[in-house]
Design goal:
Distance between the termini: 44 Å
Bound molecules: glutathione
Structural class: mainly alpha
Oligomer: single chain
Protein name: Glutathione S-transferase family protein
Order of helices and strands: EHEHEEHHHHHHH
Low-confidence stretches: none
Shape: globular
Number of helices: 9
Radius of gyration: 19 Å
Helix content: 25-40%
Strand order of the largest sheet: 2-1-3-4
InterPro entries: Glutathione-S-Trfase_C-like, Glutathione-S-Trfase_C_sf, Glutathione_S-Trfase, GST_Omega-like_C, GST_Omega/GSH, Thioredoxin-like_sf
Keywords: Oxidoreductase
CATH class of the largest domain: Mainly Alpha
Domain GST C-terminal: 146-273
Strand content: 5-15%
Pfam family, one: GST_C_2
Number of strands: 4
CATH architecture of the largest domain: Up-down Bundle
Length: 318
């Protein structure tokens, strides 16, 4: 365990991959796999966004878990009979144990499940979205963007690493810290990185190149939760997102793009964090704020140029 940061994320246990050529044993096949998500979860929401931007909805179905886990972890209590209608299971753990009956680790979303066997293929969230962008190409919609363009991969990987360490994961390290030093370390890394990203995004509309890429999706999923949860619940409170003008406009630009706003569920987000982390919020009171109406206000980022979908087109609104 790090002396500085205490909260150490467990590695993903299931790292099989679905591939275009089927060499992994899991060939890309429409209708065969089910993506299990919680709309509260930033790691799972990456998959929801890229699935929409790429137009994979018909090829890859989605199961949405109840945002509130109980002691059996993620449940399908939003579905009739408390059961996922496609997988026929009540708890995501059933897919984990079907793959490995001796599994003792956490039950996490996102999870990609093979429908015919009911087995979990992968909970390796960073690889899942890369594979949606590359391995699933045959089933992308017409006009789908290239979210992981070959010539930009090194730059995207570098920025993803920095954003993971200092933004996506740092908010959790701040929130789950048990010592002031660990909290302060995460807090300072987070806001130093957000300052650097603000500077970068002052001059360019998107993080890498002039189109939306995987890098933007990964930063967005933390930014969209920032004021609703991380600022308060995880004590990331130097500033609200709405007080960081460049990042706030950048986040609104993405939010207002089809494929982003239609995957965001602030109710699931707030109820998950404030009700599940009883050690941080023992009263179980879910804050009524913040006022979310600002998300729909003009962002003005068009004047930086950029071509959100490159030579492609946005997905049709839901
Ligand atoms: N699987 C990854 C990331 C995904 C993740 O943390 N998902 C959360 C929800 S945001 C989850 O399912 N947590 C339950 C658990 O790990 O037991 C990890 O363990 O680091």
């Amino acid at each position: 365990m790090s002396t500085q940061t205490e909260f150490v994320r467990a590695p993903n246990a299931f790292t099989e991959r679905v591939t275009a050529d089927g060499s992994s044993g899991w060939p890309v096949e429409p209708g065969r796999y089910r993506l299990v998500v919680s709309k509260a979860c930033p790691w799972a929401s990456r998959g929801l966004i890229s699935r929409r931007l790429l137009g994979l909805e018909d090829a890859l179905s989605v199961a949405v878990a109840d945002p509130i886990q109980d002691e059996r972890s993620w449940r399908f209590t939003l579905d009739p009979d408390d059961r996922d209608p496609v997988l026929g299971i009540r708890f995501l753990s059933q897919a984990y144990y079907k793959t490995d009956p001796n599994y003792t680790g956490g039950i996490s979303v996102p999870a990609l499940v093979d429908v015919p066997s009911g087995k979990l293929v992968s909970n390796d969230y960073p690889q899942l979205t890369i594979d949606f962008a590359t391995e699933w190409r045959a089933y992308h919609r017409e006009g789908a963007p290239d979210l992981y363009p070959e010539q930009l991969r090194d730059e995207i990987d570098d920025i993803n690493q920095a954003v993971f360490t200092d933004v996506n994961n740092a908010v959790y390290q701040a929130g789950f810290a048990k010592r002031p030093e660990a909290y302060a370390d995460a807090y300072h890394r987070l806001f130093a990185r957000l300052d650097a990203l603000s500077e970068r995004l002052e001059r360019q509309r998107f993080l890498v190149g002039d189109t939306i890429t995987e890098a933007d999706i990964r930063l967005f999923t933390t930014l969209v939760r920032f004021d609703a949860v991380y600022h308060n619940h995880f004590k990331c409170n130097r500033n609200k997102l709405t007080e960081m003008p460049v990042l706030w406009a950048y986040a609104r630009d993405l939010y207002q793009t089809p494929g982003f706003y239609d995957t965001v569920d602030f109710d699931h987000i707030k109820r998950h964090y404030y009700l599940v982390h009883t050690n941080i919020n023992p009263t179980g009171i879910v804050p009524l704020g913040p006022d979310l109406s600002g998300w729909d206000t003009p962002h003005g980022r068009e004047q930086l140029g950029g071509r959100p979908f490159g030579d492609g087109t946005p997905p049709a609104p839901v």
